[in-house]
Specification:
Layout lengths: L16 H14 L1 H5 L3 E6 L3 E6 L10 E2 L21 E3 L2 E3 L7 H6 L2 H13 L7 E9 L10 E8 L1 E10 L3 E2 L8 H14 L11 H7 L8 H6 L1 H12 L3 H7 L2 E9 L5 E2 L2 E10 L5 H12 L5 E8 L12 H13 L5 E6 L15 E9 L7
Length: about 375
Amino acid sequence: GAVRIPTVSFSEEEQNFTALAEFEDYIRKVFPLVFSSNFIQHEIVTQYSHLFTVRGLDQSLMPYMILAHLDVVPAQDEGWKFPPFSGEEHAGYIYGRGTLDDKCCVIVSGHNGAMKIVEKLQLHGVKLLFVVDEGLAVLDGIIQGVKRPVALVGTSEKGSITLNLTVNQPPGHSSMPPPETSIGILAAAVSRLENNPMPNMFGKGPEASMFEQLSGEFSFPLNIMMANLWLFSPVISRELEKTASSNALVRTTTALTIFNSGIKSNVIPHSARATLNFRLHPAQTVDEVLDIVRNTINDERVKLSVINSFDPLPISPYDESNFGYQILKRTIQSVFSGVPVVPGLCIGNTDSRHFVNLTDSIYRFSPFQLKPEDLGR
């Protein structure tokens, strides 16, 4: 039912508000006890976000928060086995936009909504013991060399920079081309960035602890190597660079996403612009990455303009004495039959980053089990 409601957000300003209103009607119908309980306070924030406060027996204890977002990114029918908003069930799987990101967490457990909720909590002086948001999951056969399912809890998430590169040069006609054009200069700059990746930061974020705690799940000789990263870290880090998914764990990634220039085949354009997205490893900052970008391009004709950016989130505690991590760990193991639970790095971005002033314990986990074939569904 939830998947069939197209709560699409094209941007922060352009959203399907009719569907968001319909979604409220849906959850009221499906969860009547939640809305009628004397122990649960329900508040609507900025019209479409919902804040539920469940009152415990001991009001002196610090509260914790569980997050999930209602909106989904747009989807066309092409490439889907079943229409993206059909909610079709087939062979034990539910197909549809939002089944993984993130209506599963809404039912089991928006950008502007999260910020407004934080503002409301700060206004009332609320501090949180810990926060749980969407993120990593139980991975079955996805980590190479690990045979049984393991649960990864995101104890940090990458930062982000969206950057425009612009080159302006005199326009001309294709019959008399200059030695360099705006397109050529910009293409060379982008090529330098792609051919010179950011430094490998393995061991400076939660990814090292993940492999150390999973060392017993690997067979020989990987089990020895993972348990002794102080010695084998250079070898492991080079191996992790070889696939896109594991490479994203060990460094700040560079992705060219948009390239615009030219309007006619025989006209040399005045301007060329490229948009890149960087996902920052927890060991680096926005300023550090921008300095590397400038030095790598090394061409004053290429102008940089930051569209938006934020630093990686601090690494949340995951030791044996941390209540939030341990209660989440025990809960995961009770649901998923005692799977190993280890800290990990969330390479995507979540709403949890807005809560850093309310708690130092933020964890990212989505309660589902993924196999390699699920990633292409």
